[in-house]
User: Fold this.
Amino acid sequence: MTGAIVIVPAAGSGTRFGGDLPKQFRELGGKPIVQHVIERFLLDERVARVIVPVAEQLLAVVNRGSSERVEFVAGGATRQQSVRRGLDAVPDGYEIVAVHDAVRPFFAVETFHKLLDLAAESGAAFPGLPVTDTIHVVEGDRITATPDRRQLFAAQTPQCFRLEVLRDVLARAEGNQDDATDEAGLAAKYGHVVRLLAGDPMNFKITQPEDLIVAERVFERLGS
Ligand code: C5P
Assistant:
């Protein structure tokens, strides 16, 4: 067993040039959010290497010497392209890869390990939370459909894959100019089995300023 590769796409701008820092570089408990994520994976003995796509102009300033197990690479214009760049940097000899949002610092390690095992067994696995709100499809200001809530799950990360599955999916998506917001959905779309594992409400994505306030409170209570 060679251990898993983790790709942490962190190349989102989330802001205009010269504005505030993108969310993944905002501080939580005195450290950038993405740094919490990277360090958490580095503590895990099942992780061989962490690859972090960042905006090209940041490559020169990120701390590249921090660990032999971390590599920063140039990200792309979309999340999927950033993941693709990360995948291109995976050395030979690895079998399992995880993709984790840079803005989800509170993932559960036990869940991650179960996802790695599920991916090894079936090809792909993701953590999903049953939605608690009713979700409507809306066009303009009118509801056009209301899918059965019992069939809806909010996708979290880390999403785990056998390496050849993620390579196949991203190559096919690129060929079709298909750009998706998550790799699990793409894998299913291109015919791979993607297993669901129960996600964790604490593993929320820091997207809005309010999320950062909640994250600060969680961090004070739990640590990262
Ligand atoms: O925009 P969204 O919340 O879906 O971003 C999820 C993750 O993808 C973030 O960690 C963000 O930095 C990353 N991303 C990226 N390259 C982009 C856009 C988003 O790595 N071009």
The chain has a mean pLDDT of 93. The longest strand covers residues 47-54.
